[in-house]
Structure formats: C-alpha cells, structure tokens
Amino acid sequence: MQLSTRAVHAGRDDLADLGVHAVPLDLSTTYPARDSRAEAARLDVLSTGATVPGMPVYGRLGNPTVARFEAALAELEGCEAGVAFASGMAALSACLLASVAAGRPHVVAVRPLYGTSDHLLGSGLLGNTVTWAAPGEVGAALRSDTGLVIAESPANPTLAEVDIAALAAECGDVPLLVDNTFATPVLQRPATLGAQIVLHSATKFLGGHGDVLGGVVATTEEYARRLRQIRFVTGAVLHPLAGYLLLRGLSTLPVRIRAASATAAVLAERLRAHPTVSRVHYPGRGALVSFEVTGDPHAVVGAVRLITPAVSLGSVDTLIQHPGSISHHIMGAAERAGVGISERLLRMSVGLEDAEDLWDDLDKALHA
Ligand code: PLP
Question: What is the mean pLDDT of residues 261-265?
Fold first, then answer.
C-alpha cells in the first residue's frame, strides 16, 4: 500500500475489530495484576528491552497508546521498531547513552545539526566525544571506539543535504543515525538508504500542530531493545496523550507535507527575486525555506503579522525565526560561522496558509 494509505491506518488496523473508531487513550500509570509471580516474570522480559503481550506493569515500561504511535512511525519509516521519548533531545540522548554504555563513546557527526544536538555532542555532557567530519571524510574519522555516525538531511538550519546512501557506505559496521525531522518519511526514508537509526523530533511535522512535544527513533528490534532499557531507567517517556496526538498527526502527515511543500516552493522562488534577499537555501522540496537578508534579520522577525515569529517548525501555521538568536544560539557565533550559519540567516517553516497571503506578509516584513 502507498504511504498515504498507511499513514491513515498504521497503528489502527485492529480498531474495527475492537468496535471503536478513535484510538483508545490509556492514561494509566500502573496496571493492576493479582498474580505477582507472573508480573515478576514479565518484568524480567521487559528489563531486557523486549516487549510483552498484555499490559506493561508500570507506565514507565510502556503504554498501549504510545505503542500504537511507535508501531505506526516504524512502519512509515520502513523499520522493525519504534521507540518514543519525551522529546527529540531525549531520543538523541538515549542513542548517545547506548553508545557510551557499550564502551563506544566516540561519535562522528556531519554539521550542521540542530543547535542543541550540536551542543550536546560538542559539550560531552553525556560522556561522548565527537569528531566533526564532512561527507566523504567520515570513513577516515572512524575509530575503534566509534559508536555512532550522526547526520541531519536536510540539515537545520541551512537545509544542506547529505547523500545518505553514500554516507552509509562510509560507515562500515558503525550504525548511521539520520535525523529525519525535516524530510519526514513522506519525502525520505533513511532506513531504505542504509541508515540503521532514524530519529525525529516528533514535536515538529509528525505532531503537526505545535501542541505536543515528543521524540521517536525508528530502528531494528535489536537496537530498540537497548533504547527501551535506557528509557526504563532514565524515565524519558512520551506522555500517552502525546502518543495519541502524534498518531493522529501521522494520518494527515502526507497531505500536510505536500501542501506546505508546494507553498514553500512558490515562496522560495519569489524570495530569490527579492531585492532584500541575498541568498535562498531551498533543497527543492520540503516545507522549510531558509534565506539570508541584506538588512537586519531581527527587523523581519519583528515585522511579520500573519507569520508566527517563533522557533520550532512543522506546524499548520508558518513560523519564522533567527537561528543565530534562538535555534542555534547555544553554539556561539564562532561555531556558527564555522559551519556556514550566517548571522543574516532566517529559517521559515511554511504552513498551510494561502501562498499569496504569506507572500503579502513576508514581502511587507522584508521591506520593514
Ligand atoms: N532534531 C532537529 C532537526 C530539531 O530541529 C530539533 C528541535 O528543533 C530536535 C532534534 C530536538 O527536538 P525536541 O525539541 O523535540 O527535543
């Protein structure tokens, strides 16, 4: 079946047999059981990171509503399993902790990355070390203690693209983690190109309405078990209501991505011809457009009226922000310059408004 069909039905295939139409939302923190010995046996299985049929003993070990979202996202990404987290950063942290715990704390990463991901890797806060490498130099940067190769494509905030298949070929036995937040499985499925780990800030396009924070990793069942073990002890679980909203978001994901991408292509073309815009970053698809202005980028953010002046992306409304001040502020100016993030760069996440209304607002703001 096509992705748009599975986006609607994945995680819901049993609902008609259950006699319900909406996904059951289970808010339980604990699951009563009269047989403690049987529960102990189930805990022994759960503590290996495996899943068990039936209820998950306690809310930090699993949740039926969240499990539906995990299964659906894994299916859309073409992976065996999904593991959901409280945020995208919690998902990335679990992957880094898995490497550190396995005695392979060294990461090779391709820049740019989302500012806080860059900061997490560079600061070593979770005990890892990093070598920054350009595609083509990744193979040479691998060491015996390298546990992960990490890339974003398109990358935040410049929308630089990486040839994922070529990068995967460079990685050898080291798992490649691709942050697929910007492309979503509608435009790109990294697992089909050789990535073993596909990460999302579900906060963005998967949720799609700016009202849910979450993260998810689509991967092999073997790696998913390691992540579940870490999630069990760190407690960075996705709230069941968030799982419900994210599963609902998946059903409209293909429609939203196609509509927003069509509008983004129109705006990118007009920005290229605009007298106050010196450079447009647009990979030719997707809902993100980044552009450098000749004037003051802060004035543009301050002048939009229809467009929302806010960080984050992937919502139904169009958002604009200045990476140097917000999404990539934590990196510091020197690091930003080193990875090609201009202080005149603005990042815009195109939503579902009419293209002419958006252009009217943007054009006025650019002249402000
Ligand atoms: N990855 C990318 C590409 C992002 O843009 C973000 C957040 O902006 C994250 C990861 C982190 O996700 P979260 O904010 O859900 O923790």
Answer: 98
CA nearest ligand 1 atom 14, residue: 88
* pLDDT tens sequence across 199-211: 999 999 999 999 9
Same domain (yes/no): 90, 140: yes
Find the 146 Cα to ligand 1 centroid distance in Å: 23
pTM: 0.98
Please tell me whether residues 312 and 344 are part of one structural domain.
Answer: yes
153 lines ligand 1 (CB under 6 A): no
User: In this structure, are residues 139 and 170 in contact, taking their beta carbons and an 8 Å threshold?
Assistant: yes
pLDDT in tens, 275-297: 999 999 999 999 999 999 999 99
Catalytic residue selected from 114, 223, 244, 282 = 114
Strands (E), 79-207: 81-85, 106-109, 129-132, 146-152, 176-179, 197-201
| Residue at a domain's end among 226, 252, 278 | 252
Q: How many Å lie between the centroid of ligand 1 and the Cα of residue 201?
A: 5
Catalytic-role residue among 179, 189, 228, 336: 179
> Is 182 in the same domain as 196?
yes
Is residue 60 among the annotated active site residues?
Answer: yes
Active site residue 114: yes
Give residues with Cβ within 8 angstroms of 334, minimum separation 6.
none
Same domain flag for 270 and 191: no
CA dihedral defined by 14, 28, 42, 45, rounded to 10 degrees? 80
Q: Which domain holds residue 273?
A: 253-367
Q: Kindly state if the Cβ of 118 falls inside 6 Å of ligand 1.
A: no
